[in-house]
Amino acid sequence: MSIVVRDVREHELDSVLALNNAAGPAILPLDAARLRHFYDSAEYFRVAERDGTMAGFLIGLGSHCEHDSSNFRWFRERYPDFFYIDRIVVASRRRGGGVGRAFYADAQSYAELRYPQLACEVFLEGGNDPALLFHGSFGFREVGQHVMAEADVRAAMLMKPLCSYPWVRDTYGERLPDEPWLARPRVATPAHGTLAPRPTGTCP
């Protein structure tokens, strides 16, 4: 069956939390309060369904956020404007089935209308060549490395330029066409299809 990517629903947060904390050392653990904070304020928080069950989730933040991740701060100290993939988790039984690529295609479709670059990191401890290969095949390139003091783990810092962004910004400025698929997920806009000012100081 096809993969469906959609906004997370509040009643699914317990399932998201369990999925995150079962993902292993490549994903930092969450508690319920922090996940709720993501739900309340993250710019992008979507889940994937396959065969009617949750197959994974992705949380993304704009560079305007006051996010306490040292990896996020590393990017913001070096790049003025980007969309940051804080975490992507795919259920173990669904890995290798296209869920990750569906997420990245959806996140890029959202981000390239609003940001010039995608940013994320891959932990290097314990051997993570499959994740590095996945990101490399999707157009990400390493721009540095960073040791997370809060987790004592080294990460490869990856970025991908979004080639459509300059054309979209030059053509439409701050107002996108009035199409449902262009609306911001989970973020209210002053008029349908209008790019709302990015919130500040409210992100996790």
UniProtKB/TrEMBL annotation:
<dbReference type="Pfam" id="PF00583">
    <property type="entry name" value="Acetyltransf_1"/>
</dbReference>
<protein>
    <submittedName>
        <fullName>GNAT family N-acetyltransferase</fullName>
    </submittedName>
</protein>
<dbReference type="InterPro" id="IPR016890">
    <property type="entry name" value="UCP028520"/>
</dbReference>
<dbReference type="GO" id="GO:0016747">
    <property type="term" value="F:acyltransferase activity, transferring groups other than amino-acyl groups"/>
</dbReference>
<feature type="domain" description="N-acetyltransferase">
    <location>
        <begin position="3"/>
        <end position="164"/>
    </location>
</feature>
<dbReference type="InterPro" id="IPR016181">
    <property type="entry name" value="Acyl_CoA_acyltransferase"/>
</dbReference>
<dbReference type="InterPro" id="IPR000182">
    <property type="entry name" value="GNAT_dom"/>
</dbReference>
<keyword id="KW-0808">Transferase</keyword>
